[in-house]
């Protein structure tokens, strides 16, 4: 993937290092490996972001931050990747996770699934509470399914970034060779 393209959309390292809440981590944020844009660090950050994106509530970015500090990877990529989950995508993702969990636990596959509560735009906090209660009522199948789906997304995301990065590098190499041949001909 092009580094210039990624850098254009990611926050600057100095901006993040200067943020008052992030100063608590001291020199750990100054580790260059958290900011490098190379194939493996971007793939690792993307995978960690996909995994942590399914963490319930507002702890997704915190989970991605801790995951990158422990496992390594590109910090901004991990933080931005968690944004694939939002109020519009979380319910379908959790439904998929619930079905994966039911399949993994080999529970009754024909049992009716309780419908998720309707989102009340006039009372978003009540809607979040109702959604959390609904999710808790789904029990172990949802918990296992969320974990398995997060692992699956992380593995697929890691491999996809590595493949796309390699494909881009090959295309770029071929274009450069073609251009060199034209200039020497």
Describe the protein:
It is a single chain. With 185 residues, the chain is mostly helical. The chain has one domain (3-184). The chain has 8 helices and no strands. Helix 3 (39-52) packs parallel to helix 5 (75-81) and helix 6 (90-105) crosses helix 8. The model has no long low-confidence stretch (mean pLDDT 83).
Globular, elongated, flat, extended or rod-shaped: what is the shape? Answer: globular
Total beta strands: 0
Uncertain runs: none
Count of distinct structural domains = 1
Number of helical elements: 8
| Spatial separation of the terminal alpha carbons | 30 Å
Secondary-structure element order, N to C = HHHHHHHH
Radius of gyration: 21 Å
Biggest pleated-sheet summary = none
Residue share in helix: 55-70%
The class by helix and strand makeup works out as mainly alpha
Range of strand content: under 5%
Which whole number gives the mean pLDDT? 83
Defining key terms:
185 residues, mainly alpha
Write the layout of secondary structure elements.
Blueprint: H1 3-9, H2 13-18, H3 39-52, H4 60-71, H5 75-81, H6 90-105, H7 124-137, H8 140-184
Helix pairs in contact: 3-4, 3-5, 3-8, 4-5, 6-8
């Amino acid at each position: 993937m092009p580094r210039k393209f990624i850098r254009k959309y990611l926050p600057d390292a100095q901006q993040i290092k200067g943020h008052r809440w992030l100063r608590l981590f001291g020199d750990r944020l100054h580790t260059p490996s958290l900011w490098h844009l190379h194939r493996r660090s971007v793939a690792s950050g993307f995978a960690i972001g996909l995994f942590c994106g399914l963490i319930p509530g507002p702890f997704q970015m915190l989970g991605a931050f801790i995951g990158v500090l422990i496992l390594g990877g590109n910090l901004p990529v991990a933080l931005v990747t968690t944004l694939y989950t939002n109020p519009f995508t979380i319910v379908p993702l959790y439904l998929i996770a619930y079905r994966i969990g039911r399949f993994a636990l080999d529970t009754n596959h024909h049992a009716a699934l309780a419908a998720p509560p309707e989102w009340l735009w006039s009372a978003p906090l009540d809607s979040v509470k109702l959604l959390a209660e609904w999710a808790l009522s789904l029990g172990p199948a949802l918990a296992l399914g969320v974990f398995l789906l997060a692992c699956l997304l992380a593995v697929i995301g890691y491999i996809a970034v590595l493949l796309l990065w390699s494909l881009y590098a090959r295309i770029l190499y071929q274009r450069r060779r073609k251009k060199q041949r034209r200039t020497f001909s």
